[in-house]
Design goal:
With about 550 residues, this protein is mainly α. It has helices at about 5-25, 35-50, 55-60, 65-85, 85-95, 100-120, 120-140, 145-160, 165-175, 180-205, 205-215, 230, 250-255, 280-300, 325-335, 340-375, 380-395, 400-405, 410-430, 430-440, 450-465, 465-485, 485-505, 515-525, 535-555; strands spanning about 300-310, 315-325. It has a two-stranded antiparallel sheet with strand order 1-2. The longest helix has about 35 residues, at about 340-375.
């Protein structure tokens, strides 16, 4: 029999291991050990085994493989959806026929919430942050309200489904609640929460969103024209690319040079910028065709073309240099259909075939993803459904899967493995049980006061220890307490935990990984960089989190 001093020593060592894990998970760049969250979770797990708080066999058993499989499957599906331009279409939807800054802010809230519910909040924030920054800068709008809208709405929207965020994955697997039951229980609260959050954003930033309209005399600022090199320089920007961006850099300058001006254009100054002009008259097109034929006969790389520009006071001539390939690009873009050679027809057929293959591939990706969602709604095993969809997508790609699999966030999967072991070891110390026994009599969900106290405990722990460890620590205890009331109360307790632990991420900048992703992506964005500070997020996050959490609890508890 193990004596008490030894048990106390194990408890102390277990607390030390969990404390190290907590510090590195919440503050991954601490000066004394800046190793990051993943290494911190592995260090905590290793210390739990070395301190004999948990045995090696129990450590392996603590890793929840269904959750790891579900995470892996959803990551692969999200990667294929990004390759299939799903997020580019979502980005274009934000600015399509926008009616001003307030309409744009409302769209960001709705689109990011729905996308997060289907594709996880972290993925949504990664791919949409730079695009939202670009749209805000182009319209001369302050980026802060739109970044806050993306981060907070992504967190709220991800609460609606088990695949929306990691803590929901844990809850769905541990509780056995089906995808459909989870959706029915939280989706109404999510919709009301997103609309409430959007209303708070509009009230909070109303003057900032109206200042440009006032300065422009009642006309909203229109979108600026962004240079193609700015658009294509982003690692991923869901924006429509210009045809010029596919050419060689040497060709781009000449393509954008004025080729000829129409006779109907009035006289302008000599310093006028002519980069957006192109061939307009058929006579000029025929002249370009003749020049191209002459260049192809002589195999010369450079040709000097003289264009006569008639103005009101007389005629003047300009010379500019173009290569044969540049003239050919101009004819392809601007000339009407003309008899083509066999080689050109073959190239056109090849391009059409490639476009058709891309269309079929994208359609297959969307259909497989839709099939995965239908299977989840039918109540099939969530982990194996996601893994099956991922493997089908990899098989239909007909290429080496290494390039795709390299984009999977294996560091996150390893972080979860280490966290499972660390939290299980901390549970074995008995300290979480002791603390819960002090709170449990006052936090039963059969009363309004109990629900309020439970929500406060979850809210604080989610920001102190992060939301996933909070779910791992409280999940079974909250469910067991509610199960003593009724079976329906147990399911309701899991849904309350899912809702509050997710919305709690909006309280501070450190409360959610999605917040940190938006902050880092915005700070590192080229040409449109913006620093979202901790205090600017806190000033909005506190009132929004309290109001949205309270309204959502009323809806979830009434389910």
């Amino acid at each position: 029999m193990i004596n008490r001093p030894f048990l106390r020593t194990l408890n102390v060592l277990g607390c030390v291991a969990f404390g190290i894990f907590w510090v590195l998970a919440v503050f991954p760049t601490v000066p004394f050990m800046p190793v990051g969250r993943t290494a911190g979770s592995l260090l905590g797990a290793m210390l739990m085994v070395l301190f004999r708080v948990i045995s090696p066999e129990d450590a392996y058993a603590a890793i929840d493989l269904p959750i790891i499989g579900l995470l892996f499957g959803t990551m692969v599906v999200s990667i294929f959806l990004e390759r299939a331009d799903m997020f580019k279409y979502l980005g274009n939807l934000l600015s399509w026929k926008s009616r001003g800054s307030k309409d744009l802010l409302f769209r960001v809230c709705i689109v990011s919430a729905i996308a997060s519910a289907l594709f996880t909040n972290d993925t949504c924030c990664v791919v949409l942050t730079e695009f939202i920054l670009k749209v805000a800068r182009q319209n001369n709008l302050p980026p802060q309200p739109f970044l806050l809208a993306l981060a907070t709405s992504s967190n709220i929207g991800s609460a609606a489904t088990p695949i929306g965020n990691p803590q929901n994955l844990v809850i769905a697997v541990e509780s056995g609640i089906s995808f459909g039951q989870f959706l029915l229980g939280v989706f109404p609260a999510m919709i009301v929460g997103v609309l409430t959050n959007a209303a708070i954003l509009l009230c909070y930033f109303w003057k900032y969103l109206s200042v440009e309209k006032d300065q422009e005399g009642g006309q909203p600022a229109g979108p600026e024209v962004v240079a193609d090199d700015e658009v294509t320089s982003h690692r991923f920007t869901p924006a429509r690319m210009s045809h010029v961006s596919s050419l060689n850099p040497d060709d781009m300058d000449c393509i954008s040079e004025p080729i000829i001006r129409s006779n109907s254009v009035r006289s302008t100054s000599a310093n006028e910028n002519l980069r957006s002009r192109s061939v307009n008259s058929e006579a000029d097109i025929q002249l370009a065709i003749k020049s191209l034929r002459a260049s192809s006969m002589s195999h010369e790389m450079v040709e000097v073309s003289t264009v006569t520009d008639r103005r009101d006071e007389g005629a003047s001539s300009r010379k500019f240099t173009r290569t044969a390939s540049q003239q050919r690009s101009v004819i392809i873009e601007d000339s009407p259909p003309s008899p083509a050679s066999n080689g050109d027809k073959e190239k056109e057929d090849e391009v059409a075939e490639k476009r058709w293959r891309v269309f079929v591939w994208k359609t297959a990706v969307y259909l497989i993803t839709l099939g995965m969602l239908i299977a989840l709604l039918m109540g099939l095993n969530m982990s194996w459904t996601a893994i099956t969809a991922a493997l089908v997508l990899l098989a239909l790609d007909f290429t080496d899967a290494q390039a795709c699999l390299e984009k999977v966030s294996y560091s996150l999967l390893i972080f979860f493995c280490g966290m499972f072991i660390t939290v299980d070891g901390f549970n074995k110390t008995g300290i979480p049980n002791t603390l819960w026994e002090l709170v449990e009599p006052y936090s039963r969900i059969d009363s309004a006061k109990g629900v309020a106290l439970l929500a406060v405990v979850i809210l604080i722990l989610s920001n102190v220890a992060s939301n996933v460890p909070t779910v791992l620590l409280l999940g079974t205890r909250v469910a067991a307490s509610a199960a003593a009331i009724s079976h329906d109360s147990e399911r309701k307790a899991w849904l309350i935990l899912a809702w509050v632990s997710t919305v709690a991420g909006n309280l501070t900048l450190l409360g959610s990984a999605a917040n940190l992703i938006v902050c880092e992506q915005a700070r590192r964005a080229q040409f449109f960089g913006y620093n979202l500070s901790f205090w600017s997020h806190l000033r909005f996050g506190v009132p929004s989190t309290i109001v949205v959490t309270a309204i959502g609890l009323l809806i979830v508890t009434s389910y």
